[in-house]
């Protein structure tokens, strides 16, 4: 019998979330960001499902882009971080990838490669100070790219550090820096918005938005739920109870005796652990659904198993379904009890969880 841990992926929910992003910013085109294996949801399956409706896809590295092309995905694909080796430029031309350029080395290697790129996204460091050319040197990059016959179009691009914090002035400050450069080159299309900015910020007209985490029905905000934003969760992670036992008052459960029973309790063991990507730091208030009834972790998360106190649930048996996260148990809530963010939980899932796709 196969291990029961399964990630159910609702492809129609991802499509809904993508179309919602376009509806919120109707004067833009939209990338579907499928980097990191589509945030753990399966890049090939997601991209093939969306291929006939998206404006383009975006990934982090050329390996991710090649995987999509080899799977038959035909839409444009942007390399968000550009290329890391000069030899990759020829691959970009062969597969018709769009490429970001964010430093002098990338620009020099691109010119030397003498290959055709339909769209080059020049990344501007507007204040995040991670990637991008400085505003003071952007004009030199733009002029070289615009006058290069091998470039079809130049798009000016940046990335926000704090768009998920609606009270922070950082996004407005970055937009001001970006706008100052763009005013000198108003003929260029732009791309500035991640999921948080797409959902809640006023953006420049036209250009490209880059919805990522919102595609998968996960809110980028601490204080606003996915449901409030109109998003549909795309992943439901389920397993089953594989063992039940009675634990007496004062007896401990699991590693380091981290949970000690107060009174006689019924403990269920579930097939999932940090070896599957479930967070080891999940605390004893982390919510779990057993046959749609809420309970919490009891004991430390181990590599292959977790334990739950199901005493108050009434009749429970081996084989009962457990929802670790999903529509009725948001992954954001699990992350909040695990000292992390939902992005990390879905992207770090290992291949041990079977993925089943529904549309």
Question: Can you characterise this structure?
Answer:
With 359 residues, this protein is of the alpha/beta class. The chain folds into 2 domains: 11-216, TIM Barrel (Alpha-Beta Barrel); 235-358, Lyase, Ornithine Decarboxylase, Chain A, domain 1 (Beta Barrel), CATH 2.40.37. 28% of the residues lie in helices and 25% in strands. The protein has helices at 11-24, 35-39, 43-50, 62-70, 88-95, 104-113, 138-146, 170-184, 195-200, 226-229, 331-336, 342-347; strands spanning 6-10, 29-33, 56-59, 77-79, 98-101, 117-123, 151-157, 189-193, 208-209, 235-247, 252-253, 259-260, 265-271, 287-290, 293-296, 305-309, 321-325, 354-358. The strands form 3 sheets. Strands 1, 10, 13, 14, 15, 16, 17 and 18 form an 8-stranded mixed sheet that branches. The chain has an 8-stranded parallel barrel with strand order 2-3-4-5-6-7-8-9, surrounded by 4 helices. It has a two-stranded antiparallel sheet with strand order 11-12. The protein is elongated and about 75 Å long. The model has no long low-confidence stretch (mean pLDDT 96).
Report the β-strand fraction as a percent range: 15-25%
How many β strands by DSSP? 18
Radius of gyration: 23 Å
Instruction: Please state the structural category.
Output: alpha/beta
Morphology call:
elongated
Judging by the overall fold, what is the CATH architecture of the largest domain?
A: Alpha-Beta Barrel
Which whole number gives the mean pLDDT? 96
Under CATH at level 1, the class of the largest domain stands as Alpha Beta
Estimate nothing, just give the exact number of structural domains: 2
- CATH superfamily annotation of the largest domain: Alanine racemase
- So how many helices? 12
Give the biggest beta sheet.
8 strands, mixed
């Amino acid at each position: 019998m196969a291990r029961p841990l399964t990630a159910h992926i609702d492809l129609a929910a991802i499509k809904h979330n993508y179309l919602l992003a376009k509806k919120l910013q109707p004067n833009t085109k939209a990338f579907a960001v499928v980097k990191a294996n589509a945030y753990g949801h399966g890049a090939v399956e997601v991209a093939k499902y969306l291929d006939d409706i998206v404006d383009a896809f975006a990934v982090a590295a050329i390996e991710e882009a090649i995987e999509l092309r080899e799977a038959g995905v035909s839409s444009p694909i942007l390399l968000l971080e550009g290329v890391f080796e000069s030899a990759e430029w020829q691959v970009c031309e062969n597969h018709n990838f769009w490429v970001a350029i964010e430093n002098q080395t990338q620009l020099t290697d691109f010119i030397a490669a003498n290959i055709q790129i339909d769209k080059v996204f020049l990344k501007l460091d507007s204040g995040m100070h991670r990637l991008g050319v400085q505003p003071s040197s952007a004009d030199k990059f733009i002029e070289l790219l615009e006058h290069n016959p091998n470039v079809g179009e130049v798009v000016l691009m940046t990335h926000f550090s704090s768009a998920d914090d609606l009270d922070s002035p950082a996004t407005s400050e970055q937009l001001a820096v970006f706008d100052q450069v763009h005013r000198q080159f108003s003929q260029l299309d732009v791309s500035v918005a991640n999921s948080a900015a797409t959902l809640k910020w006023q953006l420049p007209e036209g250009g490209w938005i880059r919805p990522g985490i919102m595609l998968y029905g996960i809110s980028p905000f601490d204080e606003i739920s996915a449901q409030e934003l109109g998003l549909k969760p795309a992943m439901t992670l389920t397993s089953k109870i594989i063992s039940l036992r009675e634990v007496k008052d004062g007896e401990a459960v699991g590693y380091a005796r981290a949970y000690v029973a107060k009174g006689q309790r019924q403990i269920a063991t579930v097939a999932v652990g940090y070896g599957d990507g479930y967070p080891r730091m999940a605390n004893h208030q982390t919510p779990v659904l057993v046959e749609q009834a809420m309970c919490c972790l009891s004991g430390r998360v181990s590599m292959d198993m977790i334990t739950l106190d199901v005493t108050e649930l009434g009749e429970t048996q081996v084989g009962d379904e457990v929802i670790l996260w999903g529509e009725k148990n948001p992954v954001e809530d699990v992350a909040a009890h695990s000292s992390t963010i939902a992005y990390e939980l879905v992207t770090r899932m290992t291949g041990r969880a079977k993925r089943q796709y529904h549309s």
